Amino acid sequence: MAAFDPRRMRRVIAEDPEWNVPSVPSLVELCLRFVTATFEETPLLDKLPPEYHKRIVDELSVTLPLSLTAPLIQDQDFWKRSCQARWKDCQVGQRGGDWRRYFFEKYLEQKLEQFVPGVSDEEELLRAAKVASPFVQTLELEQLLPPPEAEPQPAEPAEPLPLDGDGAVPEADEEEDEGEDEEGDGPKSNEHQDLGPVLELLPNLRELTVSYRVKECGMDFKWTMFGMTKTDCANLAAAVKTHGKLEKLALPQCQLDDSKCRLLVAKLLDNAALKTLDLSHNMIGDRGARGLGKLLHKHSALVHLNLSDNQVAAVGARALGMSLKDNTTLQSLNLCQNQLADKGGQALFKGLLGNVCLQALHLSANDLATSTCVVLAQFLEQPSALQHLDISANELGEEAGKIILEGLRNNSTLLTMDMRLAQLGKDTEVEIHEHMKQVLSSATA
Fold first, then answer.
1. What pLDDT, on a 0 to 100 scale, did the predictor assign at position 284?
2. Which of 180, 276, 425, 442 is the most buried (most CB within 10 A)?
3. How far apart are CA 362 and CA 391, in angstroms?
4. Whole-number pLDDT of residue 142
5. Which of 406, 363, 415, 343 shows the shortest CA–CA distance to 384?
6. Neighbours of 292 (CB within 10 A)
7. Which candidate, 381, 337, 330, 342, places its Cα nearest to that of 362?
């Protein structure tokens, strides 16, 4: 047999060295491709073996209708892709680390913040709320848009009044003027979107934060863009009462005054679910504080109350103090940046004498003085649960510092005290810090 000669063999040299005949895809592969391509028309994910679910979901578009993907897809990677496609900075850790929950909470927040009453489609908003309903536990609305203002009509030129024979203008008929005033156009309604119908569709909602304002209005600024009306307040209060499961309600920067505060409180009486109420940065005065005092007096289960940056003075402080005398639920009270003054501080601490529940009290920037510290020292000498006290930004003086230090001698619960800008004296502040260090070390031992 002749020896093998490679020079006499026929060879095929391809022009493209990387060219190759692709293998025919398997039937399974073809089926998976078909399911992915037709998912919107025929969603068969739940009918496929579990080992193929991940493959299908990874190839699905994030633009599919939410009414389709919400109940079917639980894969966190899909919802992570959906979030990152819509928003740049996704703080999913603030929403329990659940990407689907984060997506639908942000989605509904965006819908509500961009809704314009009288212009946007309310049915579309309710459909969005219904789709998001199973996943929404927290809503943080940084703005609510008011309805658009009507275009001003050009005024018709006034006809000149006829003159009397002596050249004087005749006096106007009083009855006619009054009739015109009654028939004249009143102030245009400025109510925001009623959140009641939306809250009815969110049975799992536990925390609601709403600011009735317009963000980034720029040169279009108008006062009507800020603040809630009485109708807004009544609608929201009724919605919260009907919902009955909210654990936190925050209404910062809403221009909430006394009358609106009392209107809200009336709907919150005997609400056993609400634990946190944040009414900071508003215009609540003594009448509003008295209403909140009634709420705290055996008519609520509030644990945290934030009234910082309001207008509560001595009368309101006394009402809050009296309501806390027998209160057994409130653990944190924030009255920073109010108008308590020395009389209000005294009245508050007199009411707190005997309270064994409050753990944190914030009273910075309230123009407190020495007389308040006398009652504070009495409170500190008695058994209480107070662990954190903020009296900063009050010009108390060195004498007040010595009074507070004396009251702390037998106190074994206070762990921290903010004394910045209180002018208690350096030596006194050092002694107070040393005392609280001893209390802390004994508590952790």
1. 96
2. 425
3. 7
4. 95
5. 415
6. 26
7. 337
323 touches 300 (CB < 8 A): no
How buried is 121 (Cβ within 10 angstroms: 0-12 exposed, 13-18 middle, 19+ buried)? exposed
- With the CA atoms of 387, 390, 396 and 402 taken in that order, what torsion angle do they form, in degrees rounded to the nearest 10? 20
Determine the pLDDT at residue 21: 62
- Dist. CA 436–CA 412, nearest whole Å: 8
Cα angle for residues 209, 125, 199 (degrees, 5° grid): 45
pLDDT attached to residue 170: 43
Give pLDDT, residue 48: 87
Q: Tell me how far the alpha carbon of residue 97 is from its chain's centroid.
A: 19
Longest Cα–Cα distance of the chain, Å, equals 147
Q: Residue 39 in contact with residue 45, Cβ under 8 Å? A: yes
N-term to C-term CA, the chain: 98
pLDDT at 416: 94
* pLDDT of amino acid 351: 93
Count other Cβ atoms within 10 Å, centred on residue 52: 14
Report the 10 Å Cβ neighbour count for 88: 6
Contacts of 60 (CB under 8 A, 6+ apart): 36, 39, 69, 73, 78
Please name the residues in contact with 294: beta carbons below 8 A apart, sequence gap of 6 or more. 265, 269, 323
What are the beta bridge partners of residue 445?
A: none
Give the pLDDT score at 175. Answer: 37
Tokens at 72, concatenated: 């079917």
What parts of the chain have a pLDDT lower than 70? 1-17, 19-22, 150-189, 445
Q: Which residue has the tokens 């897809």?
A: 73
pLDDT of residue 156: 47
**C-alpha to C-alpha distance for 47 and 24, rounded to whole angstroms:** 25
Q: Tokens 């609106």 identify what position?
A: 260
Is 77 strand, coil or helix? Answer: helix
Using alpha carbons only, give the angle 67, 104, 63 rounded to the nearest 5 degrees. 50
